[in-house]
Amino acid sequence: MTDRLKQSLLASRGEIEAGLSEAEAELARVRDRARELEELIALGTATLLAAEMISGGSKTAPAATAAESFAAALDPAGDGAIANDKPLAKAQK
Q1: CA 34, 30, 13 angle in degrees (round to 5)?
Q2: Maximum Cα interatomic distance, the chain, rounded to a whole number of Å
Q3: How far apart are CA 44 and CA 50, in angstroms?
């Protein structure tokens, strides 16, 4: 009985280690995607502000609000998901 338990624990440990490696790889992909999105938000905010400056029109919203508007366009539901984007795990496979 002890040998069976030991074998079972070793098998579980291998599965846990494999799962941990997979989770670490997924975390690295998510961090890369977050960095890309931060760059896109910064670019969008800069573009929006430049457009406001070029138009010479009245500035209807402060910079923080413009950034929030751009972020809302990326995430209309406000739940952290990107509009029309596939889940990362499915998109990577």
Answers
A1: 155
A2: 81
A3: 10
- Written as six digits, the tokens of 38 are 């931060």
The whole-model pTM stands at 0.49
**Beta carbons within 8 Å of 49's beta carbon, 6+ residues apart:** 63, 66
2-51 pLDDT tens trace: 888 888 888 898 899 999 999 999 999 999 999 999 999 999 999 999 99
What is the distance in angstroms between the CA of the first residue and the CA of the last residue of the chain? 40
Given a contact cutoff of 8 angstroms between Cβ atoms, the answer to whether 67 and 40 are in contact is no
Cα–Cα dist 82/93, whole Å: 18
